[in-house]
Every structure is written in structure tokens, then in C-alpha cells.
Amino acid sequence: MSECNLNNLRAAYFEIKNGKISDMNPAGEKFLQTGLDAGIKNFKEYIIEHIDTGENLMRIQHRLFGIKTIETLPVLRVLIINVEEFRPNLDELFDISSFQHEMKNPLTVIDGTSQLILAKSNDEYIKKCASIILNETDRLKHIMQNIRLLSDMVIEYSEFSLPAFLEELKDSLSVVFPDIKLQMQVEPSLDNIVADRKKLFMAVNNIIKNACEAQKEGVISLYLSIDPTIKYIDKNKDWALPMLKISIIDTGSGIAPETLNKLFTPFFSTKNRGTGLGLVIAKEISEKHKGRIEVQSTPGNGTTFIIYIPMMPQDLY
Description:
Layout: H1 3-8, E1 12-17, E2 20-24, H2 26-37, H3 43-52, E3 57-60, E4 63-71, E5 76-82, H4 90-93, H5 96-120, H6 124-151, E6 158-161, H7 162-176, E7 180-186, E8 192-195, H8 197-215, E9 218-234, E10 239-250, H9 257-260, H10 278-288, E11 292-297, E12 303-310
Parallel strand pairs: 7-9
Antiparallel strand pairs: 1-2, 1-5, 3-4, 4-5, 6-8, 9-10, 10-12, 11-12
């Protein structure tokens, strides 16, 4: 493969001699930065370890990369490809706007007819059925709103009070989950932050609600701090911004490894009435903030979700 072709290649290309990376293309340099941004120490060694063990997949912050060996002698040459690039986005599969429009009309008819039945009927069984239909149409509307949010998400930055944000979060959860105590610990230096308040609230709330539903009762911990080990780098703006770390820790039953790999898959849910979009939305919100989500879980020992977002400057908006 010529040097020109390697430079234009979207996949990361590495040459490995004597157990060390000896050469790479521009996409390889970018991939190394991805690992460093993810906080993986000795990322070059991390890559080589995956290659040496014969693994063909590598996961970095729920992003999946495929490893393809193209030559072993005289030099080991490998390609590392972002698997997500081969998966179509939701809006590439079908027209979201048209889909919503086509769904809206029958839902409006069903909703209106159910309300009419509920108002006019004297039969308790029929009224109960009409109420069920109304609840289910509301659920469908909620799913439609979430799909729209995912397909057309825009982050609107503003400065807001973090203590007030957390108090609102605590109040809203105490009503729905009275048997859960939300234990919060915030780094003293954190007061006002710049982010999309509404969407960040949605992301954190979605994760905590999942934790509450899994745990049922007891304490769920919420820790907010600045992570001193990683920064958000934007060379174009000459930024090296500290990262806000939001940790949500429960003491529930944990998540099985096979489920862990599917957590951020749209419409995947382990709950009977779950839409499978709550964590997907939380992940999208985090990434739209130039951040990410990590999850650590061991069956029987609870689960920890961590949201990282850059501490944006106050003159951003």
C-alpha cells in the first residue's frame, strides 16, 4: 500500500516492530489521541496487547473498533477501524419528520376517541379500557419525542447554578422514589457551570432513575468533581479545558456482561415497559457536550455511571 493511500485512509494504520509501534498514518495519530482523551494510560501498549492476544475488537468508551491484520512479515501491519462508521444513523434509515407526521394523525384520533369514550360511557370496564388506551398513546408520544430529540439534538449553552440544579434533581426524584436517599457530594470549587441545563438534567436524571428502579431502596450516591487526570483539547481554539466528572453509584444487583455491551443500543431494555432510549439519550447529550459516558459494573456489586463534560468558558455563549 503506497504512502499516499495510507495518508488518505480513514482507518488507523500501524506498523509494529519488536513489540513497539514504529510507524502510523494520520488516522493512526488521531486514534492515539482518542485513547489519550479517554484517559487510557500507555495507550500504545494497550493497542499492542490487544493485537498480541489475537483480539479483533477493541472497545473505548462504548465505541467499538475492529482490528484487522493485513501483514505479519517482515513487519506487522494492522488496521483499526471504527465499527460505528458502518452503522447507519437513525435519520439515514428513514425520514424522522415524515414518520412523526404519519404517526401523529392516527395517534390524535385514538387519543380523542378514547377521551370521548371515557367522558360518555357509564360502563366501568369500558372506561378502564379507554384509560389504558390513553396511557399507551401518551407513552407512544413520549417515544416519538425521544426519537426526535436524538435525531435533531442541539446543545444550547448557558451559565447556571450547580447547587440549584442538584436541588431540583433531588426534589424531583424524592417524589417518585421516596424509599431512595440521594447522597450528594460536590467539590467546593464547583458553583456555576456552563452547559445545556435542560439536557444535562435529562441525562443525569435518566441514569439516576434507572439506578432507582434497579435498587428500589437505600442510598444512591452522586459525586461531582473536577478530574485532574484528563482535559478536553481543542487545538483550533487553543483550549485545554478541565473535565467535570459526574459519578452516579448504586448498590443494586449490577449488570451482566452481556447486557453491559448493549446498554447504549437504541430500544434495548431489560424492563418490561422500558423504551430503551433513556441511556441512549444520556450518551448523546454527553457527547454533544464534547464529553462521554463510562459505566463500570460487576454482578452483585452495583453499578457506577460516570459522565464527563468539559468545563466550558463563561464567554462561550
